[in-house]
Amino acid sequence: MFALRTLSLAGGAALTAFVLTVVPRAPAHAAPAAPATLSCPTSTTLEALVDCISNQMPQHDSNGYVAPSATEAADFAQVVTSMLEGNCALSLPASISANMAIRSFTDSSDNRSYCVLMEVKSSVTSGVVDKGWGTFITYNAGTRRISHHAPHPKFDTSTTGASEGDAYSQREAVRIFKKTDSRSFLMAGARRSANLIDSTCQSGNWEADCSHNTNNMFYAANVALNNFYTARSEDWTAIEWHAKAASTCSNDIFMSPGRNTKPAVGSKLALLKAAIETQKPAWVVETTGGTSSCSLTATTNTVGRMLNGVTSNVCNTAATTTSGKFIHIEQTTGLLATLDATATAWANAVVSAFP
């Protein structure tokens, strides 16, 4: 800017002149992006909805997973209980309402009404939810007290971190949930390698890996499920759907009750094994306690330990009994290449084993 100034000269003379004064400008900063609501509004089926949610969860090495506080986890569990009781038109607790939404969802393929609890707020990274807390879906008219779980969701197997994903297992799980008239579906909210930080629960596992931690909504939901059915003296089963590399174990399917023991004759796992062998006689299906050398026994799975009766310190305490409430299924990833056929075979097996 220009300013009029009087300058002193030698001998006491004065000169009045316009002088250019440079005023520094404050550095320009881009305005923060406004929070977005990622509610997957164009999804008309549960399959499409789960695909959409998987795409917008914190991804590999993003450091985008945020562990919930004790209050947030307790409030999430409270909502899970309300949904199991048949409630969907409820106000979310204040601790989670800013990040999550609950709504009724009518699937266009079966015209059934489901209740969906999902994370929707995106303000940190465009197109990605802020916390990575997860999704819970109930079907109030479900006739089977089964909850189908996807603890290690991964949508795109071609992306970085390919070795850590359970290749589309969440897509399989939601299909089986729909086809079997089951009561609920649960999916973790972040890829397990979202934060490459060591777990404080079980060293050697990542912070966002809900199979080896307790400070997450996935574990809180399982506690709520167990408390709900126990209070009603109702038997129930959580089935975890996983995928494995063909080189990991020499079988197609490996099933575990969360302990490295042979399933009892007539147990849920034994019945489900027989049922899937009937559906797919060419598959090599093995379980714990047999001749298989497969190491994927799920004995360190924190949810499995809790459901098998460990009441404290599930991070470090192995289960000594098997309750029948927990079934862990590993599948060679190639089987999921024919997703609909594989999911249909499993659905038929579940219907047969859980009449």
Automatic annotation (TrEMBL):
According to the record, the signal peptide region is 1-30
**Keywords recorded for this protein, A-Z:** Signal
Q: Where is this region: Disordered?
A: 148-167
Q: Protein name, please?
A: Secreted protein
Native source species: Massilia horti
